[in-house]
Amino acid sequence: MAVLTLVARRLAAALVLLGALSVITYGLLVASPGGPEQVLLGTRPSTPETRAAIRAEYHLDDPFPLRYARWLGDAVHGDFGVSIYSREPVADVIADRLPVTAGLAGYALLITFAVGVPVGLVAAMGRGGLLDQGITLGSLVLLAVPPFAMSILLLYGFAVTLGWFPVFGAGETFAERVTHLTLPALALAAAQGAMVVRQMRAAALDLAGQDFLTFARARGLPRARVWIGYALRNAALPVLTVGGLLLAANLTGALFVEQAFGLHGLGALLIAAVSQKDIPVVQALVLFSGAIVVVVNLLIDLAYLVVDPRVRHGAVAL
Amino acid sequence: MRGVLAGVLGLAILVGLFGSHLAPYDPATQDLALGAAGPDAAHWLGTDDLGRDVLSRLLTGAGSALLWPVLVALGTTTLSTSLGLFAGYRLGWIDALMMRTVDLAIAMPGMLVLIVLVGVLGGGYGWSVLAMAVLFTPGDIRVIRSLTLAQRDLAYAEAARTLGLPPRRVMFRHLLPNLAPTVVSNALLSFVAALVSLAGLSFLGIGLPAGTPDWGLMVEENRDLLDLNPWASVAPVVLITLIATSATLLGDRLFDTLSKGGSR
Amino acid sequence: MTLLDVTGLTVTGRHLVVDGVDLTVSAGETVGLVGESGSGKSLTARAVAGLLPKGMTASGSVTLSGLQLLGARERVLRSVRGSRVALLMQDPFAMLNPLITAGAHIAESLPRTRAARRNRAQRGEEVTRRLAEVGIDDPSVAGRYPFQLSGGMRQRIALAAALAGDPELLIADEPTTALDATTQHEILMLLREVQRARGMGVLLITHDLRVAFEMCDRVAVMYAGRIVESGPGFDVAKVPAHPYTSGLLAALPSVSVTLPRLEGIPGAVPSAGDVTGTCAFADRCSQAEPGCGHARPPLREITPGRHTACLYEVRPRPHAGSRAGSQPATLREAPAGGPLLTIDDLRKQYGGHTALGGVSLTVMEGESVGVVGESGSGKTTLARCVLGLATPDGGRVELAGLDLTRRGRRGDRAHRLVQCVFQDPSTSLNPSLTVGSTLAEAAAQGSREGRLSVPELLDLVGLPASYAERRPRALSGGERQRVAIARALAVRPALLICDEPVASLDVSVQAHVLELLRTVGRDLGTSLLFITHDLAVVRQITDRTVVLFKGEVVEEGRTPQILDAPTHPYTQKLLASVPPTP
């Protein structure tokens, strides 16, 4: 029962969020300078005939709610219309760019957790020591450096000065891809990794002070049981929550990193679409990223339901 | 350590206020014959590909790069602290309404919306700054509210209410001082976030006309000069990084000192 | 046969915390380690189990049937823990893993060799058997999660889990401190039963002398990191051989007699590291001699099995006579005034839970009324309704002719009529204000005439005027509660509500604060509504007592009558749960 209410509430919240995003993005078309006609015409010549064609094609003479509803209906089916700039279906444009961004984000997340989790644990174990202080300071510094600044520093240091990595582009073969994406992924992962380090350290320290961990050791439970059944399970949830936050950071961070490294991913697509006023593409990208955030957060909520009986039985509000 | 950090920030603010007067050249004057060149005696940080003096552009750009974030930090901190305090202390339907709105705002991919809105609708720093304030406030409201909620039921706060002190006095004289560490570090973190976001927006070429002496824009425009005059792009990056880390570290230190020493 | 042998145990963290403790526990014996907060008793227990917090180190010797545990490798310790030594901790809410069931806690702690061979059904049966041992006959409890169980149930589950490995020695660190009086009694009785049935050795760590004397064969009293006295419980209770023990006993409120004066121990516990070369208690001792500060008195044997770390014979306490119960003191004259506070059919619900189900009571002018109950009785909700911190759903609260329940009528008069001293000394004062500004602000809320100045207020609660400059962090728990009392009295209220004001204080400090409340109430003519779970405290400080159970008044009457001849079964159960005062 509690589970159903929770899931229902979460789904409702997700719908409200996506609804708000869709209104904002659809509103863009109406509010953009020159009005929808001008935007949708793009670079085509503006004659009475073409204008009339546009008005008819996009039903611009219908009242706003109707137009919005029609647009939303199409959007739900994945149809965001045609890019004004390239004249291709928006879905195709996005599908074309997706692999680069997915590769970058996945690579960065891999680095983030592969480095962040152990480093955070090491810091917590040597609490107060020199290593811990160094790690804590380092993570604070990294947290403050924005991805685009990190990109330039990495580019200058490793690509231009040392020449270890290619400067621009995404590469063709898989191995090329990996080398091309290493610096961008590092730039994206630096701040996120720092966040994971801090969270992991805090979670581990918090756990170490918990009576139930001491009580588990006092009963002579095997080391694996204490670590997996007690420490890891209890630390998983807070770290997982950070994972959700990271995703949002990942989405915007990728924008800057792609721009800095000249990668042709979704971020670069969005920037280009924004500056070309290619509204259909912008709308699709915003809703797409909103949907990703919503889905991941729902998955995290589900994980809470699976792991924590208190949430499952509705004893704690999520 | 704290002295050094505060010094860096103080110096940065001074440069932000008076930088344009210190600039040796007009930031817009071009020297196409010279083009992009490395540092020398005449141009300490070299020139960009239009032959404009990098140092002068940095000094001139410091104003908008640093002063707007200060404004954002002051604005969001004041707003979020008073709203969070109010919601957490009075509770009731105002609180419920405010928190639902905050939840929604936090769940939004805010930076993305910001980029799209400012990018499509245009409109320079003003809109970016306003949008940023709207973007940063909800998170801080939530933090302040939850801290207020934790404090309001402590014995000293209940005693203050029992004494018949007016709510305003309980909130500002009794609760607020105990939230001070968080308020101060929130302000510094908002400053960092605004500095970084503002530079980031102009790095993406959003909201500003090309050629404006702006740190973020300089990074982007001179990115291709990394082999000719790396300073043109690296110098603003170094400045942003230095100021952002100093403010972050200072916030961290101040939080620790205030939470420990404030009650001694 | 000696099971546990601790010699010269020293624990050091940033400072020295345990300084040369010697202790033995034999099979089938219960040994009590008693001390106030900061005595090092809990760290002694942790050191014995090899579970000191990070950053603390132990030296000396801890052997279990000859096996040296101190400095042993983690692998050795892991094979000993659970199966030979078990540790039961204080907080039943923190001790269990929130993510696994009660049964899983027990099952995972069963002896591993046998558990591995057992199948699921047999393991289930074994868990049921273990639950029955700790008095839980309902096997479905095994399937519940900790958050679904009460504190007492959780502590039973924890005990079953601790005992699952069939240890020879159980270290119980304040196992009942976090529990209600009746539950505490049940758990203690259970512990004794299990100990006898198993013939197990028990090391019981407690701050409560009465619990130690009731439960233990031998008792060791700790102070500032060392043992100052040890011996058979009965002997220590009857004839304390160390001034500290004697002082603690004198400070102990009695449930059966109203003492004419409650005597605390002046000063505060020193840090163990500051008193290594002297008698740790010399500075607070009423019979200290010049020699006490020169060398550390050894723990000398006075009679076989009886040790003290005092060089001298302890003088008997002056009022020991009244403790014997010959002449119970009367608190004050019967109150002369009319009714001050009238509560009529007060009701309050929280969600589906009834906190107050129609409570009525009266406090006369100048009278002191105790409200007794366990957690969930509604006693704190009652106080909050009178204070205006909670809004009742129904009923009436009238204070000096002012109807407090009518909205908007509280105005600015209510706060001059009623004030409160809250429980938790760590949060009772605003940490960012000095004592002086806290008191001045409070005084300014009172009427202008007869307003007391900050030094006068401090003097009223027995603190020097120089304390006005201090911040709460520089004050001890007892001092903070004194300031909290001064703050409450600053507006000269007609009624002072005390919500468990001494529950978080050590017994030697508690006596001071109780005595202060008693005299101040008498001197200023303030009525008291004293909310507590502690019947002994009620005996000392109230004229009348109201017993609250699940939001209802179950018994009401003059305090001596209620405590000497309770009529309601719940009151009788409460009284039976109080460990006998030595």
Automatic annotation (TrEMBL), chain A:
Coiled-coil stretches noted in the UniProt entry, renumbered to this chain: none
Subcellular localization: Cell membrane
Every ABC transmembrane type-1 domain range: 98-300
InterPro entries tied to this protein: BPD_transp_1_N, MetI-like, MetI-like_sf
Pfam families with a match to the protein in the record: BPD_transp_1, BPD_transp_1_N
Membrane-protein topology: Multi-pass membrane protein
Family: Belongs to the binding-protein-dependent transport system permease family.
Protein name (database record): ABC transporter permease
Organism: Streptosporangium jomthongense
